[in-house]
Amino acid sequence: MDNRPIGIFDSGLGGLTMVKKLTTLLPGENIVYLGDTGRVPYGSRSQDTIIKYAHQDAAFLTGYDIKAMVIACNTVCSVAYNDLLRDYGIPVYEVVSAPAIKASEQTKSGVIGVIGTAATIRSRAYEAALKNINSNFDIHSVACALFVPLVEEGWIDPADEAAQRVAERYLDCLRKSGVDTLILGCTHYPLLREVIAKVMGSEVTLVDSGAETAKYVAKDLGKRDMLNGSKTGGSIRYFVTDSIEGFSNVASKYLESDVQGLVEQVTLE
């Protein structure tokens, strides 16, 4: 039994999709969450900047004696995963492999869509993972830069006209390409799931990168005999690098649990 916390970091609110799934699968685990809300989004940054931010995020989490680290940011995974895996002596999990496997299992036509930040799409990380599974997959990728700001502003309701218009603009080409499976290749995007589903239609299966990775993390930590094993609910600590209020409001709505008073503002170095 290992009661040390699991560390999760993201550029902002997106990693909450991971927190929500992990607390369902592993209710006894302690979690430390870092959202770098002061520097979101990462997707438009240079590779060197993303790597620098990733090391600062990881260094902060390891200060809490975490037993494992989850990079809940697809941009960081596509650019800096190998660096973090090399530099920290704990299990480090990325959010590309598990959703790629899930998409490969779900697709019937072999036509798969991927949406993500500019850096994630530019890295072709999902395309490489999918092609490694089946080289015949027909993959269509689209960078959706404005989705992260929409989530960070809390504009996630399917009735919100701005969210709807932006989604239609980005996703129109994917609808026309005939994808039957769409990977939400940014952990922010599942917060827009209803908006995206409305645009894509019920015949397209959406794959949540955060949820699929959480399933893998739970399974792998179990295999490593690193689970807490507590019968009572674990604790969650939230840290952000900008306003506490905005994060707390959206987090409470999405997690369906009041996090007011549980969020601390920090400075990364």
Describe this structure in words.
The protein has 269 residues and is of the alpha/beta class. It folds into two domains: 6-94 and 211-265, Rossmann fold (3-Layer(aba) Sandwich); 97-209, Rossmann fold, CATH 3.40.50. 46% of the residues lie in helices and 16% in strands. It has eleven helices and ten strands. The protein has helices at 16-25, 47-62, 74-87, 97-106, 118-123, 125-133, 147-152, 161-177, 193-200, 209-223, 244-255; strands at 6-10, 31-35, 68-71, 92-93, 111-116, 138-143, 181-184, 205-208, 236-240, 263-265. Helix 3 (74-87) links the parallel strand 3 and strand 4 (92-93). The longest helix is centred in the middle third of the chain and has 17 residues, at 161-177. The model has no long low-confidence stretch (mean pLDDT 94).
Topology:
Layout: E1 6-10, H1 16-25, E2 31-35, H2 47-62, E3 68-71, H3 74-87, E4 92-93, H4 97-106, E5 111-116, H5 118-123, H6 125-133, E6 138-143, H7 147-152, H8 161-177, E7 181-184, H9 193-200, E8 205-208, H10 209-223, E9 236-240, H11 244-255, E10 263-265
Parallel strand pairs: 1-2, 1-3, 2-9, 3-4, 5-6, 5-7, 7-8, 9-10
Helix pairs in contact: 1-10, 2-3, 4-6, 4-10, 8-9
The domain tally reads 2
Are there runs of 5+ residues with pLDDT below 50, and where?
A: none
* Order of strands in the sheet with most strands: 4-3-1-2-9-10
Main beta-sheet annotation: 6 strands, parallel
Number of strands: 10
Average residue-wise pLDDT? 94
User: What is the N-to-C succession of helices and strands?
Assistant: EHEHEHEHEHHEHHEHEHEHE
> What is the 3D form?
globular
- What's the architecture of the largest domain, going by CATH? 3-Layer(aba) Sandwich
| Helix count, DSSP H or I runs of 4 or more residues | 11
**Which fold name corresponds to the CATH topology of the largest domain?**
Rossmann fold
- Tell me the name of the CATH class of the largest domain: Alpha Beta
